[in-house]
Amino acid sequence: MSDYVRTDGLNSQGNKQNIFVLLLIGLSYNLEHSLSGAVSPTLRHALNHLAIEMQAEFPKTLTTFFKKCEEPVDSWFPYPIPPEFNPQSSLLYDGTLSEEAQEYCFYITERIGVSTRQQHNLPQSALDNLLILDTLDRLRHEDDRSAAQKYYVSLRSFLISHSWITGRHVRETDFDYALQEEIVKFYEESPVQAGDDVYTCDYCGILQFRDGRLYGIKPDYCYDHPINAPHVHRERAPHNLRRLRVGIHLRTFLPGQAELRLFDWADDLRADYPDFIDEPERYPGLDACDLCLTFSDGEIWGIDVKDHKSPHSLTPHIQPIYGEYTHTFYVIPDRRIEANSEYMEVLKGKVGHLPGNLQVEGETDFRYRVETKLEQLRKKATRSRKQQKGNF
Ligand SMILES: [Zn+2]
C-alpha cells in the first residue's frame, strides 16, 4: 500500500501526502451532491491547505478552482502527487471526476479502514462500490466454497450485463430467492418514468437524456452518443425501472465489458477446440482473477483483464495472481493501447520485475497466444493419431 493512503493519518495536520487524497474525496462528494457554492468538510480541509501553500495563485472562487482542476495536476498542485496517479492527468473532465481520478478515488476508498470511512463523507459511488466488496467478503467466509463461487459468478455476470432492470427481469432468472433479493440491492430508482424513452449504449450502458443530448456515465470513457448511432438503442421504459448504482456502474459494469468480450471469445474457443480446452471458468477462486483456462496438456492459465485509462493507476493492481496456475496474465484491452502508444512501455517500466509465470499483454497478443497454443495442441494430437495408425 502506498504511503499516500496511510489513512489512519488522513486527518493529521501537516501530512502533505494526504492533501491529494482529501481533495479527491472532497471533490467527488461535492460533485455528487451538487453543492453549488457550498463545500463539504473534507474538501474545505483540502482547500485550506491549498490556500496556504498557493497563496496569491489560489483561485478566488470555487468556480475558478473547479476550472483549475480541469488542468493537468502537475501544472498547479503544490503538494506531492501519488506515484500511482499520472501527473499529466486532470482531476476533473467535463464537470465530473476524470476517468483517472475516479479510478484512484475507488482505489483509495477500497483500502481505507472503517473508522476512517466514518470520519469522512465518502462519495456515494465509493460506498456503492464497497457493497460488492462486502458481498465478496461474506462469500469468502462461507463453508460451501463451490456454492459461494457459483453464487458470485451468477451475481457478477448479471451485473456486467444489465445496466438497468425491472423486478420482472430478476424474477425471470433461474437464481434462487436469496440471490434475486441481493441483486436488487445493486440498483436504485431511476428518474426515467414508465412510458418514457430509455437509452442504452453498447459500450457504457444506460444513458442520461439531458438538454437534448445523451450522456454516458463517464464522458471520458465513452462520449459518442448520437441518438441514431448503431451502438445507441432506445426502448420504452417499463414500470419500476431501476438503474445500476453509480459506483457499481463505474467500477463493475464498465470494466466488465472487456471481461465479457474475453468470456465470449473463450466460450467460442471451447466450442471450436472441445478436446483441447475445458469449459472456461469465470472469476475463479472467488475473484482471484477473471478467467481460468485449462488446456489438455495440463497447463492452467489464470487471466485478469485490467481496463485502466492510465498505466500509472494500473501499476498498484499488478500483483501476483494466486491459485494453482501454471501461467498467469494481465490482459490490457486494445483500445487503451491504441489511445496511448506508450502504454505498455510505461506500465512495464513502472511495475519492474515480475515473477516468471506472470506476464502483462495486450488483448490481441494474448488471444493470438491462446489460439496458437490450441492449434499446436490439435496438430500434435493429429500427428500422434497418425503415428498410432502407422504402428498398426
Ligand atoms: Zn457509451
Write structural notes for this entry:
The protein is built from 15 helices and 15 strands. The longest helix is centred in the C-terminal third of the chain and has 29 residues, at 363-391. It is globular, with a radius of gyration of 23 Å. A hairpin with a 2-residue loop joins β7 (208-210) and β8. Helix content is 46%, strand content 14%. It has a five-stranded mixed beta sheet with strand order 11-12-13-14-15. It folds into three domains: 3-122, no CATH class; 129-249, no CATH class; 273-385, no CATH class. The protein has 392 residues and is of the alpha+beta class. The chain has helices at residues 19-32, 41-54, 62-68, 99-111, 114-119, 124-140, 145-161, 167-171, 177-185, 246-272, 284-287, 311-314, 334-339, 343-351, 363-391, and strands spanning 92-93, 96-97, 164-165, 187-189, 197-201, 205-206, 208-210, 213-215, 232-236, 242-244, 281-282, 291-294, 300-305, 327-332, 358-362. It starts with 18 loop residues before the first helix and ends with a helix.
